[in-house]
Amino acid sequence: MPSHWPAALDRLLDLGGEDALYVPGHGAVVDAAFVRAQRDALAAHFGVSR
Fold it and tell me: Gene3D superfamilies, per this entry (predicted)?
């Protein structure tokens, strides 16, 4: 369910930490700041919080 994606990204960020690099299924490798920005955008879109 897409509304659960922010929570999934929270767990991913908890596991990887601030210095982690994330390899998506496609596209460039990203850092924690990018993942956090995506999480925040999805949370705002679906009206969910931490």
Answer: Ribonuclease Z/Hydroxyacylglutathione hydrolase-like
CA distance 6 to 17: 16
Q: How many residues does the chain have?
A: 50
For CA atoms 4, 44, 17, 30, the dihedral sign is positive
Round to whole Å and give the CA distance between 28 and 19.
16
* pTM, rounded to two decimals: 0.86
Q: Where are the alpha helices (DSSP H) in the chain?
A: 5-16, 32-46
The domain of 20 spans 2-46
Average pLDDT over residues 8-26: 95
